[in-house]
Amino acid sequence: MFTGIIKGVGRVVELAAVGGDRRLSIDTAGVELGAIALGDSIAVNGVCLTVVEQRDTTFCADVSLETLTRTTLARLNAGDAVNLEPALRVGDPLGGHFISGHVDGIGRVRRIEPDGRSQRIAFELDATLLRYVATKGSIAVDGVSLTVNGVDGTGFDVNIVPHTREMTGISGYRVGTAVNIEVDVIARYLERLGAPGGVDLEFLQAHGYTVEER
Question: Are residues 131 and 70 in the same domain?
Fold first, then answer.
């Protein structure tokens, strides 16, 4: 489990073929990840990976064919910047929102424009995922916890403050950049509940929620 508060930007050292999968090596120099041990989970551009080797400031993780198919990790090259976040530990502050590191799909940068000292970035997203995106809801873009400003028929837009640009790989985004998208886990579970008429007060009460009268 992660929060979407990126600790810093690492650099891809190598992508090596291992069987039908790939082994990703990442240099974490200058990124405060704490002590890294074998078996630890680290989110790389929002994808939860397991540390299988660690030496000095570099760690290695295996990326399965399934993950390569569903995320942007297959597009990485040596020298590319990646957002890094260690797994949430008990007692850590929850500054963003709960993120599983299980990417739902790929979006693309549609538009970047200035908005005061910030930037407003619009993303294209397939309709199968866009249905889970709500105005003022949470979304993870390359592992960064962001608030949705607005949603239209083809995508959504967010506001990026200067600190977020400086601390993440978002500063390198251009129109057409592919990004990993993880929708809010609450939206996925609400659909899984399968309320035929949608989620209303009656539905919530039927599934164990109580309402306090005031």
Answer: no
